[in-house]
Every structure is written in structure tokens, then in C-alpha cells.
Amino acid sequence: MSGGIKEWPQDERPREKMLKQGAAGLTDAELLALILRSGDPTTGQSAIDLGRKLIGHFGSNLRELGSAEITEITAIKGMGLAKAAGVKAAFTLASRFQARKLESFDRFTSPQQVFDYFHHEFRDSRKEYFLALLLDGKNRIIRRVQISEGSLNQSIVHPREVFNPAVKESAAAMILVHNHPTGDPAPSGEDMAVTRRLREAGDIMGIKVLDHIVIGDGEYVSFVERGLL
């Protein structure tokens, strides 16, 4: 349909359609159009046209778009920094919502719970993140601490960086978590070495390392379940 969205019949405008039918009644392109808010005046494309272009470029399952960097989005004609930032913010917020829906658990009692808590956040990540979940004496989470960003190795995951916040929070134990951007959660030799080093440091400091969970694409490896810890 030619012309700007404001010239369309009201029942076909994304905003009016959502108010009338609910968000579930909109296509992915229409939802993206609401985030973009406007089209590209230089080409005459509407916001829905841009939404369709994004879907066509990154794939209809939206996972590629959700994990795309700002520079990749702005490489598409009509997608300036403001529009790209809006799209990135929307997907990041959705990811955080998915990760936080399990916060009602006041403690972690299984590796599966840890995986359920984090896999939406890390599923499409292109970087490797290493976290420590600080726990009290009843295994209730105190807070999460990001230790490193990038490939895991002993030089950047130093016991000092891991245990300093644990001491400050008077943590009794911790669970180590990191992701593999490849999607394969099988522990590497470096994963094994870092875990062994941190477990030994924890034993000395009286802060037990309960588990190390590696998150992949739809699956995980628990060092405890595998008998590696």
C-alpha cells in the first residue's frame, strides 16, 4: 500500500490495530513499525516497510535481529542510529524480562533452575560472559557479579576478582556461570582449569563453589552433574 501510514485506513494502522485487537493481533513487521515509529522519507518507505526489510535481512525467527549489533542494523538503508537503538533496546528489554520471570525462586536448588534463569539472556550472545552468583547460607541469591567479558582464561578470571565481592557481601557460597557463544556447552580445558583454581581458592577462604554451569544454545553442562567438581 502506497503513502504514509497516516494515510492508511485506521483498521490497518499498527497503533490503532493494536489498540483494537491487542498486540497479539499484529504481525512482526507491524510490531517493529511501532518501535521504529516512522519510515524512511528519502525512499518513501513506511515504518512497516522497514520492519519487513529488517525481517527479510535478519530472518523471520527474529533471533538474528535480536542479537545484531547497532552497526549491523544501521547498515540497512533507512535505519539510522535512533531507530537502530530503539530496536536494540526493545530486544534487550525482552531478553531481560525472559530472564527475570524466574526471580520468584528465592534460591537455586538445581542446575536446571540456573539454566532456565539465564539461557534467554545468553542464548544469542556473541560474547562469552563469566558470572558468579553469590549465595547466602541457605543458597538464596544475594546478587550476581559479572567477572569477565570475552574468552575465558585464567588471566582474566582471577580468584581476586571473583572472591572480593563475595567477601564484601558475606557470601557463604557461589555458583559460577558462563556461556559458550558457539552454542556447545561442553567444557573446554580452560574451563576446567579455571574451575579447579576457583574451587581451591574457595576452599581456602571458606566460600564454597557449589557448581559451574556452562550455558549453550538450549542446553547446559553442570560440573556437578558431570562429576567434574
From TrEMBL:
Gene3D superfamilies with a match to the protein in the record: Cytidine Deaminase, domain 2
Coiled-coil annotation: which residues? none
Q: Kindly state a single biological-process term from the GO annotations of this entry.
A: proteolysis
Superkingdom per UniProt: Bacteria
Q: Which UniProt keywords apply?
A: Hydrolase, Metal-binding, Metalloprotease, Protease, Zinc
The record's section on Pfam families has: RadC (PF04002), UPF0758_N (PF20582)
Which Gene Ontology molecular-function terms are recorded?
metal ion binding; metallopeptidase activity
InterPro entries named in the record: MPN, RadC_JAB, RuvA_2-like, UPF0758, UPF0758_N
Locate the MPN domain: which residues? 107-229
Q: Which family does it belong to?
A: Belongs to the UPF0758 family.
Q: What is this protein called?
A: JAB domain-containing protein
Q: Which organism is it from?
A: Oryzomonas rubra
Its taxonomic path starts at: Bacteria, Pseudomonadati, Thermodesulfobacteriota, Desulfuromonadia, Geobacterales
